[in-house]
Structure prediction request, 328 residues.
Amino acid sequence: MRLLTAGVALAAILMAAAPVAQAKEIVIKFSHVVAENTPKGQMANKFRELVAERLAGKARVEVYPSSQLFSDSKVLEAMLLGDVQIAAPSLSKFKKYTKKLQVYDLPFLFKDMDAVSKFQAGPAGQKLLLSAKKKGLIGLGYLHNGLKQLTASKPLKVPSDVEGLKFRIQPSDVLQAQFEAVKAVPLKKPFSEVFTLLQTKAIDGQENTWSNIYSKKFFEVQEYATDSNHGLIDYLVVTSVEFWDGLPADIRTEIKKAMDEAIVLGNKVAAEKAISDRQKVIDSNRTKVLQLSDDERAQWVAAMKPVWAKFEKQIGKDLIDAAVASNN
Ligand code: SIN
Prediction:
């Protein structure tokens, strides 16, 4: 009887304590490799700010820029292990998880960023967000950076100018084939190493967007840049299926909303920086920015476009056709 009374008393104490027990704050680590004054850096910081405003005490975002926590080659493995919850690697860095995203690496695929936005918002682009789901990753959205330019230690006007030159590339087989098509030597290296590789002349050039060329100071160690707009660097904002599905539904909805709003800001920053960072590079007088004539540009297209056929089977013709159609 005394035992029963004690049991009832304990249950009463636990029930009384239950309403004041707080759910543990969810910590969302967001790891990326670029500087804070970039589209991705600004987007990540805005996301942190919105979550702090709207989910105070329930969820908190910690942002780790400039490869402080993980390089892009490690971040997706770390995500699957639960060591980081959000990242936004370039679309060129998902080869191990899906071959479909290789579509974004095809040279001279999109005529401008409006065409990229159109493709990403359409059914094919939206389906691609989930192309790595079977491998445990979910794309929450796309974020723009911009079109890529070539930079080098010598002027690049026509494809024969790159013959034998070493170019750093992201870990993409399409990008490798693109540089091999013009008889250059592509080297897959992490973003965090590019500046030093250029500075020490271990490589001759690289391809990147104006915001990355400016914010990572590549322009200080490259004499020439060519306004080539030959490819794209955009991002997949990604999380793990396990983390996403494990979130309480109301918190998941708020996080997605905050992410969508942060992406809108990031895309605005991307559009502005494509113009302003290019101008800053020109104004620095350290890198000479070269323009291509229509004929020179046509030579690059003719040399690089055969790469499409090599990857058509892995990517799917339907997907390539949908991307091309977004140019109209
Ligand atoms: C990035 O913009 O996240 C990095 C791109 C690169 O690796 O060149």
In short: The two ends are 83 Å apart (CA to CA).
